[in-house]
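Researcher: Next entry in the queue.
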Amino acid sequence: MREILVELQKPIWGGGSPKIGVADFKLNGSDIVNVKIGYTRKDGTQSYPDTYTMSTADLLKYPTQVVGGGVKLHVAPISDWKIKETIR
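Model: Structure for this entry, 88 residues:
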């Protein structure tokens, strides 16, 4: 089972609840997508400190959005992603 980690600067804010958009070209051959969001508030705290995970098959069921340069994103609400458990 192949997992990838995608690091994003911020979620997609428009249209109500925040969403995570993963570029189609980053999914090549992966089974699981893990996403880390680096967005921090003005006070320095991370808004989304967890790592979010979803199977690629599930992510491909969500709508797509084309952004600058013709990049196709698969976009799913953050609430639909699972928080990846960390081993301590």
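Model: The first strand starts at residue 3 and ends at 8.
Researcher: Noted, moving on.
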